[in-house]
Write a structure and sequence with these properties.
This protein is an alpha+beta fold. It contains 13 helices and 9 strands.
């Protein structure tokens, strides 16, 4: 594994940081989230036209740049530093890879160039609040999260040569403004139960989209109601023709690993920025005639945050490299999916960094006008969408088979070293002295 960044990757980071610094300060972020779209359309156009950000990881065949998940993660890290509200996650990370993986050639040719150019935004809509489950991050996604033939979820039926959807999806990231929805729906009832993906265009009859009040206002969410909405099947349903059907759960799990990696990098950028601002503050704020940053207790707290942020960065970079290795078909341990663990570490890092920022800023950190609370809400909001942390780690352990061969010790057998009772307090102190 080569951990060094190429000159092209460094240029992507430098250029994007310049654009974000000039056009996405705290005041601009607050103004953007209060627009109907929930983001700055002019900034999104600039990112698309000048940097090709929406098509960064799309093949050049469809107007993309042809880069990998690593470049997309680096770009998201810079966006995370400013908490820039953009449709990048929903469009380029969640929806576009599904269209690329499962869509027909006609669907790819019609949609992906528009996405790469920034003309079309897209969003992934899954039933209820099961985004983390649908992406295979918090559990196995081969179950009945799409409806399972029972009431609830999103149901699809094929009638008179047309697919129609009925149901509701919550927590649809950028779902209120996206020009295209990729909707996961259940088909086949109990006899031939399976999940398929469908394309629903903006303005479709019977679709109602409502922007919801979210904990993190920089990550807009919507509720999508579908009432006999006409939809287009993503890909070809070969199962209906007696062949092998579309493997939607596996495709969603692959996208979930990429999404977790990109969000982890975004969280690292946010944590690094909030730590940097906190360090600047404690060097200027004086108490008892000296800067509070000179106190050892403050130094220790910030040092702990620094170590945690750097560890999260290493995990995110490794996950991005592993995702690229898997996409390239490389074997070995590098081809594993490490996005879930990187995401868990990124969530912990940002939550800790933001909490320390609020505390060390004193009363300023609790005011609505200060940006410290936005970073804390980003960590909490992303955990509600893609977590929680303990389930992310449990799922990673399950996939790695860490506990598959574990058996309880036989009755009367001596406990393992890790299970042995702890020594009494003070034992061995005499020998140490």
């Amino acid at each position: 594994m080569d951990a060094a960044f190429s000159a092209e990757q460094g240029e992507i980071r430098r250029t994007l940081r310049e654009v974000i610094t000039k056009r996405c300060g705290p005041d601009e972020v607050r103004a953007a989230v209060r627009t109907p779209a929930g983001h700055d359309s002019a900034l999104w156009s600039a990112l698309a036209e000048q940097l090709g950000l929406p098509g960064l990881a799309l093949p050049d065949t469809y107007g993309g740049v042809g880069c990998t998940t690593a470049e997309l993660a680096l770009g998201s890290e810079e966006l995370g530093r400013a908490l820039a509200p953009t449709p990048l996650l929903a469009t380029a990370v969640l929806a576009a890879p599904l269209i690329l993986a499962l869509g027909t050639e006609e669907q790819r040719a019609a949609l992906l160039p528009r996405i790469a150019a920034g003309e079309l935004t897209a969003a992934l809509a899954v039933p209820g609040t099961g985004l983390a489950t649908a992406l295979g991050l918090a559990g196995d996604n081969h179950g009945d999260w799409a409806g399972g033939g029972r009431a609830g979820g999103v149901q699809a039926r094929h009638q008179d040569g047309v697919w129609r959807l009925y149901g509701q999806a919550e927590q649809v990231v950028d779902g209120h403004s996206a020009g295209l929805l990729v909707v996961a729906a259940h088909v086949g009832g109990f006899a031939r139960s399976r999940t398929l993906l469908f394309l629903v265009r903006e303005g479709a009859a019977g679709m109602v989209r409502t922007r919801q009040t979210a904990l993190d206002e920089t990550r807009t969410q919507a509720r999508v109601e579908l009432r006999d909405v006409e939809a287009e099947l993503l890909g070809t349903d070969r199962a209906a023709e007696g062949g092998e059907g579309i493997d939607v759960p596996d495709a969603l799990a692959a996208v979930g690993d990429i999404a977790a990696t990109v969000v982890a990098a975004e969280l690292v950028g946010a944590a690094d920025q909030v730590l940097e601002r906190t360090v600047d503050h404690v060097q200027q704020r004086e108490q008892f005639g000296r800067a509070i940053g000179s106190f050892q207790a403050v130094k220790h707290r910030l040092a702990d945050v620094y170590v945690q942020v750097q560890a999260a960065r290493s995990a995110a970079y490794y996950a991005a490299w592993a995702a690229g290795a898997e996409a390239a078909g490389f074997g070995g341990q590098g081809a594993e999916r490490a996005g879930g663990l990187a995401l868990a570490q990124g969530l912990d890092a940002l939550r800790t960094a933001a909490s320390e920022a609020v505390q060390l800023h004193g009363g300023i950190g609790f005011t609505w006008e200060h940006e410290a609370h936005l970073y804390f809400k980003r960590a909490a909001g992303d955990e509600l969408l893609f977590g929680p942390v303990h389930r992310l780690r449990a799922r990673a352990a399950e996939r790695a088979g860490l506990f598959a061969d574990h058996e309880p010790p036989a009755e009367g057998a001596a406990p393992a070293a890790s299970e042995a009772p702890a020594a009494p307090a003070g034992a061995g102190l005499g020998e140490a002295v």
